[in-house]
Each structure stands twice: as structure tokens, then as C-alpha cells.
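Hi P.,

Sorry for the delay on this. The queue was packed all week, but I finally got your sequence through. Input first:
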Amino acid sequence: MSETLPEKSQTTVNDLYESKSNGTPSAWEIEVSNADSYLTPSGELNYTRFLNDLGNYGKEEIFGITRYMQERLAFDQNGQRRDFARTEYSDQDVLFMIDGVQNLYLKDSFDDVKNYVLSRPFIISTFNVLRLVPSIILYSTYGQDAETALKIGLDQLIAKTDAEVFWRKEAKSKEGSMLYRTNEGFQRIQGSNPNPSGKITEKEMGKVVLPNVIRILKAVNQTRTVFK
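Then the structure:
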């Protein structure tokens, strides 16, 4: 890779599971207001707004953006490429995703995971949307149907089946009191492994993940010339 990555302390899977939230969500979990989200008034994803916020780039810039994103997101601290399946992610895979995002040289503390069982699906989805960004920019630059390509890409990350949607709902007792913020998180702290692919709801995509992605890209733009 063209730049030496900064030194950082090694995070382990045990560190992730021992992470405790003090009530303040980590950077991965921040939910924006409806006005700042990528949802339409009817609650559907606003693909056009997201594409507009990605910005316009020349054809030469595309190669620099693609190379930068691929290098930072696909290679570890030792310059070794890391590939994994898209259908099931281990905790080690998620550790790699955290490192990959930090390798973009962000000022925000995206390596700070305050509650892993809640942050995990947002980490996975944010990482995967970031990997999708270069091809979406490429489609936009060459006048192709970027909105359809974006929709197809995001569709693979959104909970659709009854089981996937269930895991993203609040965990409630028979009396209706909330046990945990998500069924997935409640099961995971019991040692189970629900939602291994890290699916999220359409609302979470529009209010958490897509705003995260734009915030990350703006941070890259401020610290690197590749997006200028």
C-alpha cells in the first residue's frame, strides 16, 4: 500500500464482548433525525439523496478513489489481503472490518465499540456499503443506472425474512416490558449467534448506516486528496 498505517493497540474479540455502553452510543450506532436521514417521508430509502451526497467525480478520480478504498478496506496492518464470505461473518471478520474503516485515516473513533452486541450489524453494514461506494460512483460517472445498482447492493444488506426482521426488533417480555434493544443483542449476550450476516432494517439503513457512510467519506475528503 502507498502509505504506512498508523500504530494502534490490538483489539481482541474478548475486548469486544467486554465492551459496555454507558448509555452513549458509539459512532457506529448513532441514529440521525428523520430530517437528516436517507428516508423518504413514507419511510422508504431515498436513493437519489444518497447519490447526490456522494458527489460528482471525474473519470480519472474514480481510479484513485477505487484504489484507495480497496487498499484500506481489503488489506490488514501487514499488507495482507483479507477476503471473506458475505453471508456469515465471524467475530474476527468484524474485527477486521473495524480496522479497515480506521485504515481510512478517520478522526472519528470508529475503533471504539461501546457495546458490541448492538454495534455488530451496523459495523458489518457500514463496511459493506463503503465497499460498494466505488462501483456506485463509477456508475454515476459513466452515466449508468447508479440508483438501480445502489438499490441492488443495499437490498442484500437489509432484513427481509421473518427471522431477519425478528432479530432487529426489541426483545420484550410476555408482559411487554423491554428486555434489550434488539432480540439479536439479547440472544448474543446469552451466547447465541443470530443474524450471522448482520442484516439490518431499511429504517436502520437510512437513519444509521447511510449517514455513517457519508460522514466517513466526508472525513476522508478532509484528510486525503483522493476525493477532491
